[in-house]
Design brief:
Layout (H helix, E strand, L loop, with lengths): L7 E11 L2 E12 L3 E6 L5 H9 L6 E6 L2 E3 L7 E4 L11 H7 L4 H7 L16 H13 L5 E5 L7 H14 L4 E5 L3 H5 L4 E6 L2 E5 L2 H6 L7
InterPro entries: AAA+_ATPase, ABC_transporter-like_ATP-bd, BCAA_Transport_ATP-bd_LivF, P-loop_NTPase
Family: Belongs to the ABC transporter superfamily.
GO molecular function: ATP binding; ATP hydrolysis activity; branched-chain amino acid transmembrane transporter activity
């Protein structure tokens, strides 16, 4: 495989408030091709808000968003694909149609997750919560975008499938930049090349678990 073309995604000086409640206050974050950037933080700290701003589904009070130093008001689907926490595929669609709509083949999904072989022809709404989450993660990760945003990708997923998704993320980062967050922090830190923890409306770079304790994300080691 030829070397991937390098790209850098940055969000800088991100500000967001809901009434008197300030969520983000001057956040800076960087994602680059060939790496996984992970964001940790307690519930309500603004992790999902940050991803929604990057995806264009939430408007910041102020922010500068750049790819390779070029400012963007919003990004296209060729630049960014976003996995939200909530299901996004209509329940009436059949599995093959959902994959086809994203330009993907059923056989590719089944190579990674053989459990889907027995689910051929199934409607999305008939899948379990874990099966839907696997499918959505797979679709977004395989999308031909420069950057992939994953909000709680491991939610409802069994440990065996978490390990497969981690392998898929490692493969896809060779040609993409990946930003993810998840409350199962060991799954996150195990694949992160760059780590931030959000607290007090800002994103702080972290090198180890001691930093996570110091920033109040962990109570102790």
């Amino acid at each position: 495989m030829p070397p991937a073309e390098k790209h850098i995604l940055e969000i800088d000086s991100a500000e967001l408030a809901f009434g008197e409640r300030r969520i983000l206050s001057g956040v800076y974050l960087l994602v680059e091709t060939g790496g996984v950037t992970a964001v940790l933080g307690r519930n309500g700290c603004g992790k999902s808000c940050l991803m929604k701003i990057l995806s264009g589904s939430l408007k910041a009070g102020f922010c500068s968003m750049r790819i390779d130093g070029k400012w963007h008001r919003r990004f296209t689907e060729k630049e960014i694909r976003y996995l939200p926490q909530h299901p996004f595929i209509p329940g009436w669609l059949r599995l093959e149609r959902a994959l086809g709509d994203f330009g993907l083949q059923r056989e590719d999904l089944e190579r990674w997750f053989p459990e889907f072989i027995s689910l051929r022809g199934t409607r999305i709404g008939e899948l379990s919560g874990g099966e839907q989450r696997i499918l959505e993660c797979f679709i977004i990760l395989r999308s031909p975008a420069r950057f992939i945003l994953l909000d709680e990708p491991f939610s409802q997923i069994a440990p065996l499938h978490v390990a497969t998704l981690q392998t898929l993320i490692r493969q896809e980062k060779a040609t993409k930049g990946i930003l993810l967050t998840d409350h199962m922090y060991r799954h996150v830190t195990g694949i992160a090349d760059r780590l931030y923890v959000m607290a007090d409306g800002q994103a702080y770079p972290c090198e180890n678990d001691e930093d996570l304790v110091r920033r109040g994300y962990l109570n102790h080691l």
